[in-house]
Amino acid sequence: MAKITFIGLGNMGGPMAANLIGAGHEVCVFDLVPDAVNELTGKGATTAKSAQLAARNAEIVISMLPAGKHVIDLYLGEQGLINVLSEGALVIDSSTIDAASAQKVAGSLAQHQIQFVDAPVSGGVGGAIAGTLTFIVGGSKSEFSSAQPILSAMGKNIFHAGDHGAGQIAKICNNMLLSVLMVGTSEALQMGIDNGLDPKVMSDIMLQSSGRNWTLELYNPCPGVSDNVPSSNDYQGGFMVDLMKKDLGLAMDTAIKSHSSTPMGALAQSLYGIHSSQGHGKQDFSSIFKMFGHNTDK
Ligand code: NAD
Known about the structure:
Elements (H helix, E strand, L loop, with lengths): L2 E5 L5 H10 L3 E5 L3 H8 L4 E2 L3 H5 L4 E4 L4 H9 L13 E4 L5 H12 L4 E4 L2 E2 L1 H7 L2 E6 L2 H11 L3 E8 L3 H29 L4 H9 L6 H5 L22 H18 L4 H18 L18
Parallel strand pairs: 1-2, 1-4, 2-3, 4-5, 5-6, 8-9
Antiparallel strand pairs: 7-8
Helix pairs in contact: 1-6, 4-5, 8-11, 8-12, 11-12
The chain binds nicotinamide-adenine-dinucleotide (NAD).
């Protein structure tokens, strides 16, 4: 069993760290929020006063932070972990960040003989709790092999996407597609409702027809169609609009750099931006469905 330091114990990181403890690893945790730390120490983790102290004897460090600037600061900043990790240690960053930041951290750590993989996840908070996340890994073959047994305590599907940064690129391609599917599913369901159809009946029909997709099947955005999804819980929990907005920003930056044409992604970015500015930033991303509802006097 490995000595693991886990940094960033939010909606995703908290349950991921708990699964590592459950698998028998020796886990030391750190977060800026004391309550998040206490929850994990209550489950058997140790902690320390700073990220550097928490990582001092670690064989493996895992981070699950909001954005690229937090990841760069954690590893390369003034109090950066690069200064305390030993040669041969492995860093697994599971945050969703831009590929360039992941490559920058990988390059700097490599100069100290510290291994790195970017390993963003898909599967949401439900997947983090159940230990069924999909990990999309960027790094060398040997780094991937070192990370695999650790990731398998937190996830079910573990893909090697390519070299450093490739995990992040694959992840944002996926989330750009997800946003487009969510918007399309929402407008189609609302058009059915506007024409007198029952959204449950509409969903059943489309699930057996060519419009079938993940959002319709497992994350239906129309309240009351499916149980145990954010739309049936006032769009609480799940994957926040503001995080989707962040990912679509990363997708558009990537598209500009690679001269890729992404008109659907650009439209989804615009719609999620408007939705967030209308006060829905903290709701689940399926709440975009509400944008298409209207009160008519017809
Ligand atoms: P969150 O905001 O709930 O958690 C982030 C945690 O990081 C917080 O507890 C915060 O206190 C901590 N943190 C920030 N800076 C820190 C620092 N310098 N040192 C220590 N701790 C620090 O976010 P989340 O929902 O857990 O998402 C984390 C990452 O996972 C994001 O990049 C997000 O895009 C990605 N992600 C989220 C989901 C989801 O469904 N929530 C799904 C897939 C990927």
